[in-house]
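Students often ask why we bother encoding 3D structure as a string. The short answer is that it lets us treat folding as translation between two languages. Here is a chain of 650 residues written in the first language.
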Amino acid sequence: MVGWLPLGSWPTSAEQARQTAGLPPGSEVFLAPAVIATRHLTFEYPNTARELIGTLAGEGITPAVILGLIGVAADRNRTVLLPVAAPDDDTPVAPLYLLLGTPSRGIAGSDHLLPHMVAWNLPDLADLMGRLSAAAFDGYPPLAELGQNFLEQTSEKWLGSLPTRWARIQEARPEVTVRRDAATPAAWLNGKQILVLGSGALGAPMAEMCVRAGAARVTVADQSLIHPGILTRQPYTDADIGLSKCRTLADRLFAITPHTTRVEPLPGDITTTLDGADVHSFDLIIDATANRIVRAHLEAVRATDPTTWPPLATVMIGHQATRGIAAFSPTRATGAGSDILRRTGLAARTTTSGAHTDILDDFFPAQPRTDLFQPEPGCSDATFTGSAADVTGLAGQLMTGILHALATPEPQQTMAALTVRSPTGPSDPAPPAARWWTWPNDNVLTEEGGYQVRISTAALAEMRAEARRGARVRGPRVETGGMLLGTIDDATRILWIDEATGPPPDSLLSEHHFEHGTTGIREHLAARRTATQATTRFLGMWHTHPHGPARPSPTDLAAMGTLTLPLDDTPPRALVLIAGGPTHVWKAWLEDDKPPHFYARLADRTDTPAPTPAQPRVTAGQPDITWWPGGYATQPHRLPTPRRSDDARP
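And here it is in the second language, the structure alphabet:
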């Protein structure tokens, strides 16, 4: 049983019946009359049509009504299934079943009984009804009248000679059936709409997991064709070679639960098809492409989309299919797969225990890998070695982790990454366990050139701590600042600020101006570059405008083009970040940790804006200004400190 039709809604063709029931083309389809009793019927399974109809008559369902229902179904089945057959002795008989629902079982702890379905096959009755259909079905009178016509044209005695055959029903109705995955994280997928990017070693099994969990719609996207080498570990056959991956996978998955899940292929270049797809109609997007271009595209499009995206999971496996990683980006996360994978590499590098060296070597090597695996002649993409057992096991672990994250209450969701490892042999009875890495959202703003700036909570906390200390030690209006460490990604047009420092001890701080010193910065930057394998390096400088607007002064504008540091690899561009805001905003940052106003500009050192002549640059040579040193000094300079020729300025 795949659906219910009200009386009179008879399909006019087999194709219409299949469409109404949601069945694939070519499926066998027919109608069956159904009777639902209101109380439990206690009887042995009847052997004849008379016994069956007599039992139902005790419930107020007359033989005429039952025969009318059976007659309509028998005639319609002949019309729908055999529309060109002549009613002669050689005409095949369309199947006919009578369904009976009776409240017979309930849920433990409840007295309420739920109707379960039983069925009888009535082949001889169907044959007789079909032979009488030409005379009896003129205009379809009311069911009771139709059934009475049958009784008048035949003898009621024939009911006692027509056998019934009990037919087993495999119940799957949710009101009486508990799914075997009901108490698992996979229950989240039931009724959801899922987009899977990639139909390969990870994408194909994950898409199948979604279908088997009862997803309402699963869309699989891939531009590749099936070639012989992938049969080792992907769910395709020799007959599929040369066909579209996503189309073939969609056909196979649709056959699993054709009545509940719609499976759609999305062939073609993924970045192109994504632009035309309504990603907001999905409840989950799984990126199983392991493709940097796709990840960068998702990161950039998601960052610039004013509409909230659904959760995004980015999954990959290592070069020998012994490790896997899933980056999970909830609905309101500031970062997607590229962002979270970058954070994972940073976190693994800075963990002092060394427990994640294998993860680093597999996914974030210091030097590009040279042992690339080309599986077969003509294959353009380097891939990995690994068996069907390897990739299926990792896919299951990663998918289960993603589903656990999705089931977490939304206020607790953060950007997260899951690293997993395959089990090893008895010689290593306790391999490293799976681990979750989590990060809170960044503070996000847009700089003047359109790049998105993401300030980590650690960097923002360091800036706030320095501003609070400066207000306490130097005075509420003395400016302060320091360096910014992070990365510029031109592909996604994102600037990541991972770390912020305070002012070196030879810096000059006043209520009018901040000049960044140089003592110790070379060593600090070199140490951070080594520790993070150059993932985090000099990005720019920040300073404050306490109780004032977060916009550059003429002095700031003049300094942007000459922003430099005494380093051999000073980048040609640097970020200038100014924190400020009116008094109520500034106090809310210092006292309540609410973000201040920010100004950001990615300055090119070859483009030097000229200062406004009416407002000349403030310098340390003005003795009427109180100058404070950086570092942890608690007293101002009595005299201005001479500056060197390699000054670093904000």
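Translate back mentally: The two ends are 74 Å apart (CA to CA). Keep this in mind for the problem set.
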